[in-house]
Structures are given as structure tokens and as C-alpha cells.
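Running this now, will post back.
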Amino acid sequence: MNRKACVLTLALAAGAVTGCGKRPAEEAARPRVIAVIPKGTTHEFWKSIHAGAARAARECGVEIIWKGPLKEDDRDAQIEVVENMIGRGVDGIVLAPLDDTALRQPVASARAAGIPVVIIDSDLKSEDYVSFVATDNRVGGEKGGRRLAEMLGGRGKVVMLRYQEGSASTMNREQGFMDAMRAFPEIEVVSANQYGGATTESAYRASENLLAPYKQDGGLTVDGIFCPNESTTFGMLRALQDGGVAGKVKYVGFDSSDKLVQALAGGEIHGLVLQDPMNMGYLGVKTMVAHLDGKPVEKRIDTGSSVATPENMNEARTRELLKPDFAQWLK
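Update: finished.
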């Protein structure tokens, strides 16, 4: 299925998008302005979100303001962005909250100001939003866990490097992974309480610290590793490479980047759980426009996930998710 067909299929299945609609003449004199606020702006994942949002904006004739914190642990910066967008009087906000609690009040403030909010990527402990458009992250974590168990033949010792507290999306992936591990009684999770933090640098340091007790005779005494997002996956990859053990331990990560795709092809990573961030950004904006047009939208829209492996990475759909062509929408 090509990209266009896949997006339309997902959109129609969700029931959230039936076109961009028409506005009354007096409203159509100015384009709607929708703020799209990511958790951060550096990772490839967010560039794909941006591209999908930009595509939807072009199709619907709306303007998007793309603005978010540089780092994914800067709650205050993201709160300030939301507050600024409320002050500007934007027509809608599409938000990926980097903390499921800290962003509750800003979202409530937006609603009180008559500005609807669509949540993408990561859930919020609130009902003050129109729709939640995201991967089913718990299912994604389970898929990662099953892939790792498959590579281990259902037995061995594994570790998980978590991301950071307060990030609902990654906490759900971590829980999904742990749920999957319970189905394999001969797999022992020997460490699951370490956090990588918001950057690849902090994840690299955390990975080295996590692996240090398990280094022995040029190898590792653990058999498998799971990481729940792009930065922890890359930080762990660097630690394995620098320690000379990349490829010697079964390793499953989450999300994609050029370096991670290279490692998958080279046998240093054995699985990457893939989301569809372009579709997430696309449907986030489309859902907001549908709501502004007075159309009913689903409260929860699952944008799907799959697992890329060295065996399937060259299949058309997997290749498209591994290397999304987001540049054309960000010109």
C-alpha cells in the first residue's frame, strides 16, 4: 500500500477525518492558525511529526506554528510555549506533552480560553482535550518484548534502560515490555530501574553505568537489551559499540534514525519498534481541523506500530517507516 492510501485508510478507519471542510465566508477571510507543539525539536521523530503536520496544513489551507523546547526534559519551556500560544489566540493547539501531569493546567487554560487541544504522541492525565492521536505505546512495548524473546529463544537475562519519569508514552512502552516478559518465565529481567534521560549524551552515560556490572571477559553477562525511544536506543548503541560488544547481545530499540538503520542492517540491533510519526502529525492537524469544522472526531486514534528487523527492513512499507521522506514537506 502506498503512503497516500495508507494515510487515508488510517484516517477513515479512525473516523476523524473526512476532508478539510468549508468555513463560513466571514471566517474564511483569514487562515486558521494551529500551534503544533512537540516535546522537543532535535530528534528525527519530531522532524517527521513536523512534516506530517505541514502536509495536513497545506491540504486544509491552515497555517501551523511549529514551536517546542529544544530538549525533551524542559517542562517549563513547553509550558511557556503553550501559554504564549494561548496569549496569541491561536485557533487550536496540537500538543505532545512531555509530562503527563505538568501540562494539565496549561491545557485546562487553553480550554478555558476557548482554544481546543488535540494531544499527540504521549497521553495527558486530563479530559480537557478533543482527541488523543498516537501509537498504542503499551502494544508497541509488548511487540518489542516479544521480538527480544524470540531472538533469545525464550530464555536468558535481559536489561531495560528506561527513558524518563513523567513521559507517558515511554512509560507505557516500558510497561508493555515488562508485560511481555512475564509470558516468558525463563527470561529474567535483571535491571529495569535505570533512566537514560532526554538526550543521547545522558542516555550514553546511563547505558555505560547500567552495563558496567555485567561486563566480563570482553563480553556481557546479559543476553538481551530493550530501550523505549530514539535517544535511549542510540545512547545504548554507542555504549555497546564503544565497549566492543555491539552485535554480541540481542538488542531491540524503539524509533528510527540513520544511525539506527545502519546498526539494524549491520546486525548490531535486532529489532526496532516503529511508529508512524508523519501520520501522527498529519492526523493530529486533520483532527483539529475537523473539530473546528464542527465534525465529530474520535477520542482516541491509534496510528499503529510495527517491528523492523534485518529480515524485513527492505520491504517497501518497512523501508518507508525507517526512512520517512519528510524533507519535501519542510521546504
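The chain has eleven helices and 14 strands. More later if anyone needs it.
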